[in-house]
Design goal:
Layout lengths: L2 H31 L12 H30 L12 H26 L2 H12 L14 H7 L2 H8 L4 H18 L8 H5 L6 H9 L11 H5 L7 H8 L6
Helix pairs in contact: 1-2, 1-7, 2-6, 3-7, 9-11
This protein binds zinc ion (2 copies).
One zinc ion binds next to helix 9.
Length: 245
């Protein structure tokens, strides 16, 4: 099949998968939220919830395009490591490496997007919501996605990470991102005490105090660069699963 046709088919398939996770996952998360502790006292306005849901449907279309373009270029040989096949233990190692690399990419590009001009023209749209809900996860502009989500395109072309591993990572990122915007804390005591892993409180606080908590999977960049919000540890311990409501 031609590269263009492959791209269009995989774009559609990836979009259907991500959209399915967004809506089915979103409704499940809202159901689970009723058993958890809310992070903020404020509520998101119904108007912003509708805006975020609408924008996410559009934004997932361009995220799917970036991932499927990388995938198809790799499969057709336009990559440094095309059609890579690894033993399962190496796949697991590659997933771990991808998580660290994406977190590093996300932290630094995200900090760049918080510089005055880029924030205004590229990233402010996402921050209009100060009390995020699950539907806020992909409420980003096209330009914002071209910065933060182009990892999926570059990783498929440049890194020795099999395509299946990148797809698993993207699905994990979609689900963890939605939990991170849910407004409720899903962490148990281990994550709440961890100096490396993060709970939903981490990104929720980024929406409240936007000069802190830039990372997406782990805490280590925020700790090293002293951008971890000062109340993060106390808040997550108070909101974690099992803490008193
Ligand atoms: Zn931000
Ligand atoms: Zn956000």
């Amino acid at each position: 099949m031609s590269l263009t046709l492959d791209f269009l088919i995989s774009w559609l398939l990836i979009y259907i998968v991500l959209l399915g996770i967004f809506f089915i996952g979103g409704y499940l998360i809202i159901k689970i939220n009723t058993k958890l502790i809310k992070i903020q006292n404020e509520q998101c306005s119904a108007k912003l919830v509708r805006r975020d849901m609408r924008q996410s449907v559009f934004s997932l279309l361009n995220i799917s395009a970036l991932l499927s373009l990388g995938m198809v270029l790799n499969i057709h040989g336009y990559a440094l490591f095309p059609n890579l096949s690894l033993p399962i233990y190496m796949d697991i190692l590659a997933l771990f490496v991808s998580l660290i690399l994406f977190d590093t990419w996300f932290y630094w590009i995200h900090r760049l997007l918080h510089t005055r001009k880029l924030f205004r023209y590229v990233h402010a749209y996402h921050h209009k919501t100060r009390t995020p809900v699950v539907w806020s996860n992909n409420s980003d502009t096209l330009l914002d996605n071209l910065f933060l989500q182009s990892y999926w395109l570059f990783a498929a072309i440049l890194l020795p990470i099999p395509i299946e591993v990148l797809i698993i990572h993207k699905i994990y990122d979609q689900i963890s991102g939605m939990i991170g915007h849910s407004g409720y804390e899903y962490a148990g005591p281990i994550v709440a005490k961890s100096k490396w892993l993060i709970g939903a409180t981490h990104h929720d606080q980024h929406h409240q105090h936007c000069n802190y908590n830039y990372a997406t999977h782990f805490q280590f960049w925020d700790r090293w660069m002293k951008t971890l919000y000062k109340d993060y540890e106390t808040t997550i311990k108070a909101k974690a699963v099992g803490a008193k409501k």
